[in-house]
Amino acid sequence: MDESNFAFLEEYQPATSLSPDDYTEVIGRQKVEELKRLADPLRGKRWSHVNSTFMGGGVAEMLKSVIPLARSMGIEAEWMTIRGSDAFFNVTKKFHNMLQSQPMEITLDEIFEAYLDTIDQNAKSTFIASDLTVIHDPQPAALVMNGVIFGNVLWRCHIDTSSPNRIVWRFLLPYINHCAGAIFTMPQFVGPGIQIPTYQIMPCIDPLADKNRQIPQEEALEILSPLFTRDGIDPGRPVIAAISRYDIHKNQSTILKAFRKYRDEHHPDPKPYLIFMGNTATDDPEGGAMLETLKNQAQSDKDVIFWVNEENNDRVVGALMKLAQVFVHVSTREGFGLVVTEAMWQGTPVIGSRVGGIPAQVIDEKTGFTVDPLNVDELAWRMSYFMENAAGGKRLGRQAIEHVRSHFLLPELFRRHLGLLRFYTGVDKDLPAFRLDSMSYSEIMHSLRVRHPYLK
Q1: Which pTM was predicted?
Q2: 24, part of any domain
Q3: What is the spatial distance between Cα 381 and Cα 259, in angstroms, rounded to a whole number?
Q4: How many other β-carbons are positioned within 10 Å of the β-carbon of residue 63?
Q5: Of 58, 390, 74, which is closest to residue 201 (Cα–Cα)?
Q6: What whole-number distance in Å separates Cα of residue 272 and Cα of residue 234?
Q7: In a domain, 34, yes or no
Q8: Are residues 135 and 254 in the same domain?
Q9: What range does the domain containing 114 cover?
Q10: pLDDT tens profile 236-282
Q11: Are strands 76-81 and 10-11 parallel, antiparallel or unpaired?
Q12: Are residues 355 and 315 in the same domain?
């Protein structure tokens, strides 16, 4: 392995500043003041995050807002990424897929050379001393045993590990159990053998981010006009949107089949477009191949459009969600699906699958529709409802906005993390209300001292 590629972990430098007061109009003064109260004793505390990429995916999007918000409140927040070769990201993508039950083969060379050797090289350039460090997902998980992270460490799992591949899970389990706790999106994602405190924190979107501005239809059309012109899209025709990275679990092929079934059997006039939009992430080497597979399935269908790595991505995503008559996200496996939250926040009618964290957002017939992810007939039927019933779609869209406001905006995610910071720094003795087990404070501290004798 070429050690010259490994310098100290790259640290994120926020391009913008954020204050809790900036969210007053969205969540109200009372909740803003509560955030300030919770954060006040944490001034000067250090809070670190480690993952594998600054670009692409919901983790990066959340941290880009969390870090400047925390810093504005006096918390010394930092976010670093580990480095790796294509081989490293190939094997960690396998980890991701196998943890979500996809059958795959994995070799000892991949585990020990591509993964562990890369972790060891990163460890040589790592020194983190924090009151609380959050390690995100499998990519940096093994870093916790290299003696380079000091203080409380939590493992944050963003994927569905409700029925993980036994080999990969048992390989990762010692690293997970070495931590002071683990954070999962849903209770059912807590895999077997976890022996540390577990907590539930669902992902959230930043309503102040460019992507999530609630804009009028006219502005959305203006933003999309250059892309419509480039691709020969008639702005007078309706749009069904599917926005996600290109991944086997995102199940885009079923969306394509259902779209064609709806179009060919219902003969809508005017015909809708199906627009697939997605970016490629640096830690997802399979995206390009999945995109080509989907394009081959589309077979130059003029009603099916692909947008990939577009300029001004966030503005385009927000505008497409606002303009679409229907947003579809029917993953076969899904840790949460922040893209669903984003569409709901725009008030766009959503069809989601009954998988992972999606049903926590899309309450069937209240904030949208949920379907079996592989049931083409059911999906086509729900498409037809929204395409032919504008009033019903608007009603569910309004209810979706309020559901997101109550549960899935960034201040709520930040509030829960403040609770963890307060608990693990001793400000609070009571367990956070969002714990998923019943270990007492003394039991947790005893468990920590057994694994980390230097703790007093």
Answers
A1: 0.88
A2: yes
A3: 10
A4: 20
A5: 58
A6: 10
A7: yes
A8: no
A9: 3-204+409-451
A10: 999 999 999 888 889 999 999 999 999 999 999 999 999 999 976 55
A11: antiparallel
A12: yes
